[in-house]
Design a protein that fits this description.
The chain is α/β, with parallel strands linked by helices and 382 residues long. The protein has helices at residues 2-5, 12-47, 58-69, 92-101, 103-108, 122-141, 161-174, 206-218, 227-238, 244-256, 260-281, 285-290, 326-331, 367-374; strands at 80-85, 111-117, 149-155, 180-185, 199-200, 295-298, 305-315, 339-346, 354-363, 375-376, 379-380. The strands form 3 sheets. The chain has a 5-stranded parallel β-sheet, sandwiched between helices. The protein has a 4-stranded antiparallel β-sheet with strand order 6-7-9-8. A two-stranded antiparallel sheet has the order 10-11. Helix 6 (122-141) links the parallel strand 2 and strand 3. Helix 2 crosses helix 9 (227-238) and helix 6 runs parallel beside helix 7. This is NB-ARC domain-containing protein.
Length: 382
């Protein structure tokens, strides 16, 4: 299976067959693990840096590679443009980064340019135009070199059609013939600008997500040797709503604390925290964070405090990022003050983006609840 997925396959029907086979394999592994570790739990009751791997996107990666390597002598003046759309934290950036690391892709294009557009401000669009103009000048000074560019544009905010038209005009004006553009966005609005069918990413199925979570949690350790830990990991994975970032943070935490008691404590913490958040606000906090909406986050080591994730942004390699991590605040003893930033994700492959959350500490009002518990029928309990 792995060998087949590693080949350059241009036949889309064969790709679909391989994906169906892969999904069936994940379902089979999941059913086996479910049966095995539920059975272990019954017996126990009676007895009283994979972090940057791309998982489950082999077909999608091959479709992108096929688009990039395909040449059409009659394609006209329009640059080939592939839109990739999907919800937040579904893996769009990771997919493109892995495709750009492919040897055939790197050999096909003389240079790969990465741009991140947050709010379609005039400065952002102007910087894009200047970068394209600079590349055009470099191309003219080396006219004997056959240059093809791959331009990757990540749209973080809502689409501004006028700003997009400026971006595309600059691409057509300055980018050499034979170049390609990949655009990633949460908005389906970008689909209409594609010269080929858009690629839509969805969250991994529960079975595929479990396979991913198990792999990065246990690493080279055989889960069969730790049935109780594996059962706890399955229960924890179910609560993470297929979030890749939440999965990586949690897997790192569990790997660093390879202990049944600790994993059970994490499970109990997640269960209580997620239930309270849904009861108070009507939505799962991970869903809100994936939509870049404010969410309350509980702290496992300091129950009297929680912090609010207000918004998130991606930082380039040149930008300074905080030393404190999301894991440090949620699960550690780090005590940030008032408003602060945390590093949530740091990619180790180009374009080396980091994801940073802006947060604020909030004290929980426990005085009233304590007073209520200590008083009964007007008298103080000792």
């Amino acid at each position: 299976m792995d060998e087949a997925m590693g080949r350059h396959i241009t036949n889309q029907a064969m790709l679909l067959q391989l994906v169906e086979l892969r999904d069936a394999m994940h379902r089979g592994y999941y059913m086996i693990d479910t049966f095995r570790y539920q059975h272990h739990d019954e017996e126990e009751t009676k007895d009283e840096d994979l972090a940057n791997c791309m998982f489950g996107r082999e077909m999608e990666a091959q479709l992108v590679i096929n688009f990039l390597l395909h040449t059409d002598r009659h394609e006209g003046e329009d640059l080939g443009l592939l839109p990739i759309v999907g919800p937040g934290q579904v893996g769009k950036t990771t997919l493109v980064a892995h495709v750009c690391k492919n040897e055939r892709v790197r050999g096909h294009f003389s240079k790969i340019l990465f741009f991140s557009i947050h709010s379609f401000t005039n400065d952002e669009v102007s910087n894009f135009e200047k970068a394209c103009a600079t590349e055009h000048q470099n191309h003219m000074s080396n006219s004997n070199i056959d240059r093809r560019l791959l331009v990757v544009v990540e749209f973080i905010g809502d689409l501004n059609e006028n700003a997009w038209n400026r971006i595309y005009r600059a691409s057509k004006q300055y980018v050499p013939s034979g170049s390609k553009i990949i655009v990633t966005s949460r908005s389906d609005e970008i689909v209409k600008f594609g010269t080929t069918r858009a690629l839509t990413l969805k969250y991994l199925s529960h079975e595929s997500y479990w396979y991913f979570f198990k792999t990065i949690t246990f690493g080279s350790t055989d889960p069969k040797m730790h049935p109780r830990l594996t059962q706890l990991a399955m229960l924890i994975a179910k609560m993470l709503n297929s979030s890749l970032i939440a999965g990586n943070i949690t897997a790192c935490l569990l790997r660093d604390n390879f202990d049944v008691h600790f994993w059970g404590k994490v499970l109990t913490f997640f269960r209580g925290y997620f239930q309270r958040h849904i009861s108070r606000f009507g939505e799962h906090p991970i869903d809100l964070i994936c939509q870049n909406k404010p969410a309350h986050v509980a702290r496992m080591t300091i129950p009297s405090e929680e912090f609010m994730v207000q918004h998130q942004n991606e930082c380039s390699l040149e930008e300074e990022v905080p030393q404190i991590t999301f894991k440090d605040v949620m699960f550690g003893s780090v005590k940030p003050h008032e408003k602060f930033e945390v590093l949530t994700w740091k990619a180790r492959i180009p374009p080396y983006y980091s994801r940073v959350y802006t947060c604020e500490i909030q004290k929980l009002n426990t005085t009233a609840s304590k007073r209520k518990r200590s008083t009964k029928n007007g008298s103080t309990l000792c």
